[in-house]
Amino acid sequence: MTNKKALYTHVSEIDHEKYWIMCPVCNGKTRVQIYKNTILMNFPLFCPKCKFVHIIDVKELKITIKSARR
């Protein structure tokens, strides 16, 4: 049986700060939040303000845009 106290201690040590992904075209806030350790590959990011869909990669809060379409 696992020790629940040790498990909760481990979870509390993780950085829980969230960051909004901003649209690369209009700089509007999207509906997606990520953590510092989030990794996304070929993620379809939709911006509700400019109606663009961007295919992006995210690693260590660095966003790479692969393509964009309306």
Keywords for this entry:
70 residues; mainly beta; 5 strands; 47% strand; globular
Chain-wise SSE layout:
Elements lengths: L3 H9 L6 E4 L6 E6 L4 E8 L6 E7 L2 E8 L1
Antiparallel strand pairs: 1-2, 3-4, 4-5
How does this structure look, described?
By secondary structure, this protein is mainly β. It has one domain (17-69). The protein is 13% helix and 47% strand. The chain is built from 1 helix and 5 strands. The chain has a 3-stranded antiparallel beta sheet, with no helix packed on it. The chain has a two-stranded antiparallel sheet with strand order 1-2. The radius of gyration is 16 Å and the shape is globular. It starts with a helix and ends with a strand.
Compact description:
With 70 residues, this protein is mainly β. It contains 1 helix and 5 strands, in the order αβββββ. 13% of the residues lie in helices and 47% in strands.
The average pLDDT value, as a whole number, equals 85
Oligomer: single chain
Spatial strand sequence of the major β-sheet: 3-4-5
Helix content: 10-25%
